[in-house]
Model the fold of this input.
Amino acid sequence: MAYEKDNSKILSETALHCQNNDYKIIHGIIVDTIEKLKLESSTIGVVSAGFSVFIKEPYLPDLSVAPQGRAPAVATGIKRVRPNCVVFTCQEDGDLASSGLSEIIHAANRGENITAIFINHATYSTADDQIPLGESPDEKPRLLTCSFGAADAANPPKIPEILATLDKPVYITRVALNIEDNVEQAKKAIYNAFKLQSENKGFSFVEVISPRAANDNDAIIEEQLQEYHKKVLEKFPVKTFKDTYNVDKP
Amino acid sequence: MTKVLMKGNEAIGEAAILAGCRHYFGHPMPPQSELLAYLAKRLPEVNGVFLQAENETAAIHMTYGAGSAGARVMTSSSSPGMSLFQEGISHMAGAEIPCVIADIMRGGPGLGNVSAAQADYWQAVKCGGHGDYRTIVFAPASVQEMIDMTISAFDYADRYRNPVVILADGVLAQMMEPVTLPAPTDHTPDSKKWALGNNFKEKKSGNYSTSIFKAKEELEEHNWGLYQKYQVISDHFRKDKPELTYEEYLCEDADIILTGYGIIARVLQTVVEKCRKRGIKAGLLRPKTLWPFPVEAFQQYAETASMFLAVEMSCGQMVEDVKLALNGKKPVYFFGRAGGSVPSDFEIFNEVDKLAGRN
Amino acid sequence: MSAKVERIILAGFGGQGVLFLGRLLAEAALKADKNVSWVPSYGYEIHTPTANCSLIIAENQIASPMITVPDSVIAMNTPSLNKFSQKIKGGGMLMYNSSLIDRQEFRDDIRLVEIPATDMANDLGDPSLASLVMAGAYAKFSNLVTYEGVEEALRKLLEKQRIKEDEINLNIEALKQGFKYVEETRYMSGRYAHAVFRGI
Done:
């Protein structure tokens, strides 16, 4: 081999970018789930190059950083080679619902035995230059340039509702992190999704509503945030859309 | 060994299986579709995975996933699909993921037509994706070579952790010739320590596959690291395996050296024979790898031949590499047909005849 | 016809079986330890009335598999005959399906072979057997493949496709009748006779 890069360095570098609070929560839930289901030696994550890069010491799953939108296809390739591994994807709205709408729909439509975690900012905001925190989807975003209008551009479709029309997915749900109860629900949902995959049941999908800008903003006003959160949840209600194996039932 | 008649498309598919490939992701597009049809039938017979992806973009990224999990994996398409592959190829080159990509060229640009063409030399050889990267490119000229080169392609992809392209055209893919099939080799994804899903127990942290390097210094280090790898690949072919990079026919005493790859090289051989019968000292120098390009072979004959004629099924793409290789030492002429036409031995002969008169 | 190489263009409507006919002769040639190349027309061409394939059978290595000047043309319909008959090498052969092609003024430097292939195939109950009638007829003229070789190749190809035995026998009957037609019939007469007998 002529040349091989040093992976450990890259990992510590990318770790620095996981500053967002919701990510910490979501990643924490995923890691706890992996540990609860004892999947440490068989989990492979496919994440995007944005902020869904995954980190929690000391445990690290095997990771592939997929190009924007392509995670479900990459995960499909991995799963087909490693059917005994649990393969999950972690994508945001700009990644999953915009660039990669085709990939997620077809992975679901094939009933690919993977778990897709969808972190929905409800604004397509993933990078520094997009919509700042607290801005309503109805307002014209300040930092978006030229022809980008909020109504047209910053308006992700309702993905679980779309996927629920397909035959093969076994578990499709939407959760939120704004209040304790919702966080508990999110934990259950992610656990269910991983468990279904580990039992070879089929495609599972969890949307997590996280209406935040990518970068933490100094001017966060908690009340503002809660208000905005409510508004977003009106459009994207917390709900299980498909549950073939009744895992959500108590 | 007994010979069997095989179509070029089928030959690539069978060769992939013989090389230990058990994963194929693709999308049908003529004139490459028989390759999918063949593997759809054959792969399940050997417990392999055949998946017809929703489109070429998905296919190349499934290939990326399977490659990063350590499998010997292949995808294929024809020209317009190859354009969609470029994103994934760039990512794979950056993340150093091995895979084999068969590109059966058809007429372009755009939808063009499904007839055989060689208009994607630049795309495959100069790399149509973004970033500083290289892919090894094999150019078979017979159905037997489609088998031999596909098998080599898998070996080199793994050896250098790099995408390898088989660049052929519609005629080669559609034609049938007798072939000898070599013995199969086994391959297991577990043999690659770096692969995802491997090595869970031994390691402290996860295996990681990425092409993102956020710090400038890191990316630059990676870029020069890749560059160094490409140099090693180049040197390997040049020094250790020149026979894999070109083939020559009657070049020693040739005045005019004809050059072309793929199906054109076959027509050129007929032209050379015709030339020799008519007293024109022509020879044929056929690149078998387009990257690395057999520069030395051209330089060697720059000393003895008086001119070169590149013939392609395009408006002239490889001819630029011929000129670079010769570095102005001898004149390089070009003759091409585009739009999906294969130039006939007659029209090429006339061209040579004209040039010989000029001599 | 040169003994060492036979360059044949086989052409007809899509569905007349010209690609299979070429494939069959190619398999027979391979069994006879010859070099062979078979290049089909494909894509939109396959839907035109001149779907065709280029077949080269040779003792030596085959350089170009493309045929500019065929030694023989097997034409199953009029458009194919019009497209390819002018390209035939002087002294070469034009074998055509006289059931569908009207006799017309041809070049006088080639051998003409009329086979009422579609009529013969219809007599056997299946017009799609016409191409096999032609294959049998061609075997009579070839220096590189034999009738027995073509018959064996046909049987193997059909067995591979899991065709029923009586169906296979019907296919072989078509092949045999083509061969016999050439053997037994003074297949050309009148003003074209000079062309027919030249070189035989």
